Task: inverse folding
């Protein structure tokens, strides 16, 4: 009769999971034009067990971190597309098992990416689009004075209409437009210019002109519209 030798076999399963006791610290918000660095720090409760840190920046390129010598810090230059996306830090032991995972959500403030746009159709319009947040106000002025104010301002509005007083013999206007971006005005210094053929503008738009005095001034019912909201 055959005999069998039974050898006991024991299967042991090891489960490794992140304990979650970690955090990524950094600024609440980064004001940038797309060229400023963001520095983050990975903090783990039981750092004595950590062998190394792995950092992952937002897609599509997850390997943009310049790490400090001990790996706890990550410095990279976020693009505007990185706004609201996560940076992840993983603390690993000597066997590459994850001890902790922490994330940081990128929060950017950035100015408009294009200069103000002046257009001339039925109205002369200056548009400032984009930015986070939007610009607080837009200043749009021409060679002569606006009436009743010297400048039009937009503050939490989408449109401002003004009249224009110019010299009776004026044939053109040199218009300029710029905007104030509150978080850091110096990041949006752009100024746009346009030379307007005043007589052609009045003829094409059927605007009315009424004489005031003996050839001194002419009141032009030209509309200067200012738009400071994306998509208008």
Result:
């Amino acid at each position: 009769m055959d005999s069998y030798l039974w050898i006991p076999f024991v299967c042991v399963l090891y489960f490794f999971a992140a304990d979650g006791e970690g955090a990524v610290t950094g600024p609440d918000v980064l004001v940038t034009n797309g060229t400023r660095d963001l520095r983050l720090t990975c903090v783990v409760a039981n750092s004595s067990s950590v062998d190394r840190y792995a950092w992952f920046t937002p897609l599509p390129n997850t390997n943009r971190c310049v790490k400090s010598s001990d790996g706890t810090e990550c410095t990279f230059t976020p693009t505007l597309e990185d706004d609201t996306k996560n940076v992840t830090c993983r603390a690993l032991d000597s066997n590459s098992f994850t001890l902790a995972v922490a994330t940081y959500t990128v929060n950017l403030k950035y100015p408009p990416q294009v200069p103000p746009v002046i257009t001339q159709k039925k109205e002369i319009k200056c548009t400032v689009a984009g930015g986070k947040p939007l610009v607080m106000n837009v200043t749009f002025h021409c060679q002569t004075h606006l009436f009743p104010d010297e400048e039009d301002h937009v503050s939490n509005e989408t449109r401002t209409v003004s009249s224009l007083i110019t010299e009776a013999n004026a044939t053109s206007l040199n218009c300029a437009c710029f905007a104030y971006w509150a978080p850091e005005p110096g990041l949006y210094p752009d100024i746009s210019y346009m030379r307007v053929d005043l007589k052609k503008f009045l003829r094409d738009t059927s605007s009315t002109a009424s004489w005031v005095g003996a050839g001194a001034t002419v009141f032009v019912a030209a509309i200067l519209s200012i738009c400071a909201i994306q998509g208008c």
